[in-house]
């Protein structure tokens, strides 16, 4: 008997809850003050530096990642064949990116293919240009797998 009365009580509570939700006011669009008050949106210039300007950041970030996370002594010692692959390959209202590729020569004497992009306002808190990169064969956490395909345009 207690089970039946508790079921009646819970179904009555559910009915009250559904009734309150049905009486709630409908969502409304933002009024003009809410839409235009200090919300100007992003303003991208599309003025990105050359491919070579991203190399110091790649050298530093690669050394830091290999040393801290993978306990490796691999370092980039040189670059070769650096060239642009694409600039803003998608619609013009996307975040501007310059895609580049080339070879990274490591301190073990091996050359690995390098794919990277320079992203406008992609740095820390959007205050500078950011760099995302992938070295084929050394994408240990598979962030850009397979074979760094996700780092390309």
Task: Give me some keywords for this one.
153 residues; alpha+beta; Nuclear Transport Factor 2, Chain: A; four-stranded antiparallel sheet; 3 helices
**What are the secondary-structure elements, in order, as H or E?**
HHHEEEE
Determine the fraction of residues in helical runs and give it as a percent range: 25-40%
CA-CA gap between termini: 67 Å
Tell me the total number of β-strands: 4
Task: State the CATH topology of the largest domain.
Answer: Nuclear Transport Factor 2, Chain: A
Number of helices: 3
Shape: elongated
Query: What ranges have pLDDT less than 50 throughout 5 or more consecutive residues?
Result: none
What Rg do the Cα atoms give? Answer: 26 Å
* Major sheet: 4 strands, antiparallel
State the CATH class of the largest domain: Alpha Beta
Q: What is the count of structural domains? A: 2
Known CATH architecture of the largest domain? Roll
Q: What integer is the average pLDDT?
A: 85
Structural class: alpha+beta
Q: How much of the polypeptide forms β-strand, as a percent range?
A: 15-25%
The largest beta-sheet arranges its strands as: 1-2-3-4
Keywords: Signal
């Amino acid at each position: 008997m207690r089970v039946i009365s508790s079921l009646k009580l819970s179904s009555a509570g559910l009915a009250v809850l559904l009734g309150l939700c049905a009486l709630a006011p409908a969502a409304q669009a933002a009024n003009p003050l809410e839409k235009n008050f200090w919300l100007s949106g992003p303003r991208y210039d599309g003025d990105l530096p050359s491919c070579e300007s991203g190399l110091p950041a790649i050298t530093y970030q690669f050394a830091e990642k290999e040393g801290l996370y993978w306990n490796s002594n691999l370092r980039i010692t040189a670059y070769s064949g650096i060239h642009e692959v694409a600039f803003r390959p998608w619609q013009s209202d996307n975040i501007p990116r310059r895609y580049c590729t080339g070879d990274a020569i490591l301190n073990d004497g091996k050359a690995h293919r390098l794919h990277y992009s320079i992203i406008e306002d992609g740095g820390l808190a959007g205050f500078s240009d950011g760099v995302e990169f992938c070295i084929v064969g050394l994408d240990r956490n598979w962030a850009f797998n397979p074979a760094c395909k996700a780092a390309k345009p």
